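== Polypeptide entry ==
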Amino acid sequence: MQLALRVLAIICLLVGFHSLRAQTHLSGQLINVQDSLPMPFVRVLAPSVQAQALSDETGTFTLNWEQNAPQIELSIYALGLSITQTVIVDTTETVQIFVNQRPTQIEGVEIEGLTAEKIVRKAIKAIPKTTPDSSYFSEAFFRQYYFINGAFKNLIEARSVVMFQRDHSNKLHRFKEAYAIPQLRRTELNRYLGDFHGDEYVDLMAQNPINHLGTSSLAPGYLEGYTFRFDTIFSDRYVIRYQRWKRSSENHGITNFDQINFRAEAWEVGRLTIRKEDLAIMRYERKAFRDPNYDYAWAANFVLPGRKYTIEFLEGHLIIDYQEVEGKWFPARILHRFTNEFFHVRTHRTAYKFTEMFEWHNQAISTQISEELLNQFFEIPNLSDIRYPYEPSMWEHQVPPFLFFPKSRVYADLEAESPIVEQFIRSGEEGEELPD
């Protein structure tokens, strides 16, 4: 016993010495002196201590190493940039590192004279020409699931048909959506907040700035406060980043987001891929982060109608890919994820932390549809409540993979209480009948 204790003590001492040596670190933020903007996704190496990192969306990176060093030499690599810079090590705060990265010229394309902002504005103005100008149908796969207090819950999957109805009277909301649900399956739903749940499918479609420009981050009236810069220029496309402080269109599941004026609770960064030939938007990405200085004290952030909880936003991420079909660009894939924190009103202690994931895949486009299916469309599909017959054979093929988390990990949590197939069957039988 004494030997075991002595060995354990020696191991603890060794681990203690190792952890002390591993504490040296450098947190830095790369700033471009050309425009005073953070430099995201830049590779930073410290060869002398064999450490490396990649800066995040805010230009921030962290290096860890074991040796003591009062100063360190960094090698910084990005598109058109390769420099070495000596930095004094300060482990108590983030060090700002100013880098001179000039505008990039690739394949004879000169950025000067046509700014990143002008290209974005031209692309937005070209939306009526580059996207469909008439109604159409999309056969689409929809998936949503939650990560609640450390466990995956509430999986819903639907084989759906979305009717995109062209609204020629509204330039900022060019399409209205309606939904038919030929096939549906869901696990048993845990309504942790009781009286709080919305229709997530409708909200997901509203994130598409091409169809709903007026409430998006690309609304022309909102662009004045943005900072745009070129990320990369290819022979056939531009990749442009933007940043907006103290404003975001990320509604994080709140249906009356604009009415209660929550846009100032977050800041956001975004990236657009725009084809040079016709200025069509090929990809749109948006990341939103809670503004740490935003105070909810006077905000109307009660969860209605019960007012038992308040809600505070943490972060959100949206990706939309577009695909060209016969000269027009259609949404091909929409991925949306956001995290909220809910607090008890009386104690203000954390009750729940929700991360909600949504995946939408456009599997076919058509301008015609059967009359039988045409009578099954609803403006709000209400996937969490309707009754359905579960048909396993309909789910054997063309089920897209999980994109945010591995399917095995999600299913392991979902099947903690009962097999998932049993939940699919039981949830369909217990649902509500659709109205005639």
Notes: The mean pLDDT is 84. The longest helix spans residues 2-21. The chain has seven helices and 18 strands. Residues 116-429 form one domain.
